[in-house]
């Protein structure tokens, strides 16, 4: 008898409760919409018979659908990880390339007595070199100041040629001296500007003001959303407002900043003119509602 009663109770229970005891109506509809690749309005537009048939088919294929969903999630997760790994690899390759370039440039400069930092050193090193060697030395110095020292300047100053014509040693020398002058100008000491220090109390007070303003903005946006959400039902049944607490956005005079005022609806009265109630429930009442004593 006990076995028969258990079987009969199981038969009378809907499929989703004994086959998927953890599934809820919301989860089932989410799975169904994912399976059909449809928005939420898809089910609302169907009749009761079509809705029941779609749900029944979704229950029958719930396991398959969830397996597909899990596979899709794993695929997306793998794609994101692969993309991040590829991005990190490119970043590391770029950093390695920059280090190798700096090492190679430093070795080339060391063959010509190290970095040249003054015009006198340039003249001293070049006077004992042949024109071909002068060209190689100047190119090495320009690359060093571009890649390692990272001197700012026109791109042409660091090039070996322009428009298919190679620069002569004299031209490269002029470019290098100009680069050195730029480096000297950038490294000069400038007198510090007058600094204004703020008190810690002023910083905290300004932070508190910003937090308060942000809180008020968020609260005003939330109140506006709530008003617009509940407004249609209140328009259909105005009497449902009685006894409810609300915030009323209004201003004392034109041009003044509107403020929120709390209140409680005591009764519903006719308005003097037709109002647009879609903007934060700004209601103009024909007469003032007299206060009522609460009933015990």
Automatic annotation (TrEMBL):
- Give the InterPro entries listed for this entry: Oligoribonuclease (IPR022894)
A GO molecular function term, named singly, is: 3'-5'-RNA exonuclease activity
The record's keywords, sorted A to Z, are: Hydrolase, Nuclease
What this protein is called in its record is: Uncharacterized protein
């Amino acid at each position: 008898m006990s076995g028969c009663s258990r079987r009969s109770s199981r038969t009378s229970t809907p499929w989703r409760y004994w086959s998927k005891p953890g599934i809820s109506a919301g989860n089932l509809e989410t799975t169904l919409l994912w399976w059909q690749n449809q928005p939420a309005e898809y089910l609302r537009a169907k009749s009761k018979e079509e809705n029941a048939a779609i749900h029944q088919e979704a229950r029958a294929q719930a396991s398959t659908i969830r397996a597909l969903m899990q596979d899709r999630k794993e695929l997306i997760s793998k794609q994101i990880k692969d993309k991040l790994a590829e991005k990190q690899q490119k970043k590391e390759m770029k950093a390695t390339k920059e280090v190798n370039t700096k090492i190679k440039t430093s070795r080339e400069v060391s063959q010509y007595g190290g970095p040249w930092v003054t015009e006198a050193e340039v003249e001293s090193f070049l006077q004992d070199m042949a024109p071909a060697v002068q060209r190689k030395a100047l190119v090495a110095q320009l690359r060093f100041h571009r890649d390692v020292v990272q001197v700012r300047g026109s791109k042409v100053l660091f090039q070996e040629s322009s428009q298919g014509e190679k620069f002569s040693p004299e031209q490269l020398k002029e470019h290098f001296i100009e680069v050195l002058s730029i480096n000297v100008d950038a490294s000069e000491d400038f007198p510090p500007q007058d600094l204004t220090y703020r008190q810690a109390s002023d910083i905290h007070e300004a932070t508190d003001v910003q937090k308060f303003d942000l809180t008020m903005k968020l609260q005003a946006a939330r109140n506006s959303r709530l008003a617009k959400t509940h407004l249609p039902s209140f328009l259909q049944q105005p009497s449902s407002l009685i006894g409810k607490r609300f915030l009323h956005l209004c201003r004392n005079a034109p041009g003044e900043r509107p403020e929120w005022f709390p209140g409680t609806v005591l009764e519903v009265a006719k308005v003097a003119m037709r109002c647009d109630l879609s903007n934060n429930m700004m209601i103009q009442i024909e007469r003032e509602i007299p206060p009522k004593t609460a009933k015990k």
